[in-house]
Amino acid sequence: MSRKPPSGAVVDGIDFDRWAVILCKPDCVERGLVQRVLDMIRASGVTVTDRMDVVAQPWQAHVVYRDLLAEAKRAPRDLSTYLDEAFADRPVSVALAHGEPGIHAWLRQLVGHTDPTLAVAGTIRGDLGDDSLSVALAERRLVRNLVHTSDDPDAARRDFGTWFRDGDCLADPVFERCSVILCKPDAVERGLVDAVLDRIGAAQVAVSDRLDLTVQAWQAHVHYWDLLVDADWFPDRDIPACLDAEYADRPVTVALAHGEPGVHHRLRQLLGHFDPTRAAAGTIRGDLGDDSLAAALAERRLVRNLVHTSDDLDAARRDFGTWYGARRRALLSPLSPPRQRTSVDT
């Protein structure tokens, strides 16, 4: 079966009002209930296509449950550990659901209450669930409730990018040679984007596919998921609020950097220390930065340090999905000859 959606609408990001992602969780797979769950969804009048069986990576669960990770008052302190135990390196099945506008609310009703013991008969969790929230709390884990579907069109777009990447990309060597450059709002507002990209391009790296965009809040949350997970390290700051203040609805520029294996480490060295006052001369932040960690702490905000590049090949894969999306996968083809900072259509 094709790993691509049957219509260009999903890939083009046009029709997420009518599309949702179905995630059959590890307990559903282990109990052999995936087909029954998908059949119940089909029987409700929803078209189900493109089933894909995958092994979940930790970041995928973090992204799917980013809202809980960001709301420390509503989630247990060790939620990230619970997520890793429930999902990391365990099999899941995902599929696409297509229907009328409002499909997301309809599916959530069909799935039923989070706690299977409170889910009514006729719902998936009510009929097939065998766990309870009280048992999960007693055992300090997540409740096993079989299935998740996208909450709304924005969540469907995010879920699609999380799970429905090209099936071969997990082993795709392109990310060993490709990094994502994020010129942050302070770089844009100070008019330094060209200077930053020129510095990177001069370091034997081909810079291509520049894209100017306005950040959606979820992109900042996914990009900085590690800050959200480790919010306890920053007791003096509200990390979700800081991310929204620095990024949401503000302009950034992204581009791709192509080089030899090891490009991620070399670019991070070129950027310099995250605190511009500690970045060495000759680095981008050392030469162009005008903020400091001390000032950021005093003002209870994030430090403004101009630019980010992907930490490693896994981060590059995630960054590409966050900022470029599945429909721009073709941009990852090898550059021949290298194209310098060409624009892409938004």
Automatic annotation (TrEMBL):
Nucleoside diphosphate kinase-like domain mapped to chain residues: 21-171
InterPro entries, alphabetized: NDK-like_dom (IPR034907), NDK-like_dom_sf (IPR036850)
Family matches, as Pfam families: NDK
Enzyme class, first EC level, given as a word: transferase
EC number of the protein: 2.7.4.6
UniProt: ATP binding residues: 25, 87, 108, 114, 125, 145
Active site, renumbered: 148 (pros-phosphohistidine intermediate), 308 (pros-phosphohistidine intermediate)
Cofactor: Mg(2+)
Keywords assigned by UniProt, alphabetized: Kinase, Nucleotide metabolism, Transferase
Family: Belongs to the NDK family.
Annotated protein name in UniProt: nucleoside-diphosphate kinase
UniProt organism field: Streptomyces yatensis
Lineage of source species: Bacteria, Bacillati, Actinomycetota, Actinomycetes, Kitasatosporales
